[in-house]
C-alpha cells in the first residue's frame, strides 16, 4: 500500500499557563512518525490528553506544529490542502458545536459545496440517503434531531465534497452505545476509496473499523499493530486498552 500521508518526527509544545509573558512550554508531541496508506483505515489510540486531537488538528491544518514534516501524496501538507480543496474532511465528537443551530439541516450539509461554488441543494437528498436519513430532515433544525441523527448529518456534511481523506476524531464517543454501533456501521460502509484516520479511546470501535492501530504514548508512537498482532502488544497504553476491553481477555 503506497503512503498517502507521511508524518515524520512531528513535535509540538504548548505554552504553560502563567501569564502572557511566560515562555515556559510543555511538550505534547515529542517525535511522532507514522504513515497512512492510500485507502487505509488507520486507528490512533492513546490515553486522554496524550495529543491525539492535536495530531488531527495539525493534519487538518487547524494548528501549527513546531518541527517535523507532513507529506500528503509526497507534497508538503499546506500546499496539498491548497491544491486539493475539500479533499480533506473531519467529523468531531461535538456535533452540536460543529453546526449552526439556526441553520436548516439542508443548509448545514450543503455549506461546504456552496463555499466551493457548486450547486448544493440538489446534492442534499442523496447525501441524506447515504447516511440513512430521510429527505424531509433537510427542512429541520439541529435541535429537532437526536444525537445519532445529528452525527449522521455531520458525516453527510463531511462527505459532501467527496473527500479522499477523513479524520473521525472521537466521532462516536458522545453517543449511546447502541447508536455508536449504528454510526460505526455507517462509517464502515462509507469507506470506498477514502483514507480514514479514526481517533478514539475505544479499542473495540477501532478494531471494528481499522485493520491497523497506532498507540500514542509519551509524545510518540509506542506501537503500530495489526489486529492479529494485538495479543502480543508490548506498550503500556496498548496493554491497558486491550485489558480493559472484555472480548480481548
Ligand atoms: N487549545 C489548547 N490550548 C492549550 N492546551 C491545549 C489545547 N488543546 C489541547 N491542549 C492540551 O494539549 C494536550 C493534548 O491535548 P489533545 O486534545 O490533543 O489530547 P487527546 O489525546 O486528544 O485527549 P482526549 O483523548 O482527552 O481528547 C493536553 O494536555 C491538552 O490539555
From TrEMBL:
Presence of the UniProt keyword Transport in the record: yes
InterPro entries given in the database record: AAA+_ATPase, ABC_transp_ATP-bind, ABC_transporter-like_ATP-bd, ABC_transporter-like_CS, P-loop_NTPase
Gene Ontology molecular function terms on file: ATP binding; hydrolase activity
Any Pfam family matching the protein: ABC_tran
Segments forming a coiled coil: none
Residues annotated as domain ABC transporter: 5-243
UniProt keyword annotations, A-Z: ATP-binding, Cell membrane, Membrane, Nucleotide-binding, Transport
Transcription is among the record's keywords: no
Family note: Belongs to the ABC transporter superfamily.
Name of the protein: ATP-binding cassette domain-containing protein
